[in-house]
Amino acid sequence: MSVIELKGVEKSYGSHEVLKGLDLEVSEGEIYGLLGPNGVGKTTLFQTVIGLLKEDSGQVVIDGEEHSGGKELRRKIGYLPSDISFYPDMTARENLKYFAKLAGTEPDFDELIELVGLEDDADRSPADFSTGMKKRLGIAQSLIKDPEIIIYDEPTTGLDPEGKRKFRKHAEKINSEKDKTIIISSHITTEIEPLCDRFGIMKDGVIVASGTKAELNEEVDSDLGIEIEAADTEKTKQVIQESSLDAEVEEKGKGLTVKSTGDIRSELFNVLMENNISVRRFEVGEATLETAFMRLTDNAGGQQ
Known about the structure:
By secondary structure, this protein is an alpha/beta fold.
């Protein structure tokens, strides 16, 4: 079941188009990663989903209802912006209580604080917190309304490796133990790759591809080459070009890259052996999320 569905959403700032007929579907209970270079409109997309911005055209459907910016629908969504700040003259706990009062709710503050691992720091000012601790306090704040959906906008920016690990740990815990649907954006695949069930790749104001890591890899797999290093590069290149293989050969570094629309590994290896080519390395390039992201967003740009 889809809890978020965007259909042909458009949003402009003056004459500058940011979202250009964007379609997006997020399923209940999943962790969805939104990947895109800086400036393609990820934050604009999120602010449209939560109702801070109004789309110019298209539909934003939350949990089966078209989003009109009403309070009931907005209560279903928690949001952690990329830049987060707290009142320095209040403790972490007091900040949470203040935001809860504004939201008209009374959560279990001890539970929220324990969930993000700030039990020993709840009565300190966030002004004394590290970036990672502030992010964790922000996670707690995003849960104040007990929302069904949580959106994290570039949450690992500014975190050291340990901070990123802790963020992923808390996000996984919230998803599994609290049964929340989570959407996380990033421009760096490795930041969210271990965490997400599915990914959407955004370019020029639209989602150009969406699916699991394996499904996205399939979109670029046929474009990955076989890397070959041989004792005689020129002879190897000539043998491949004169064979019956449907393949392109190009020199790369100390060796060759052979590309084909089909799987020619066995046939290629046999051709090399039949022609007494001394092969030092024969490797098939591995499809990765990074590969898919880079190829699908080549020359991307836009307005954040």
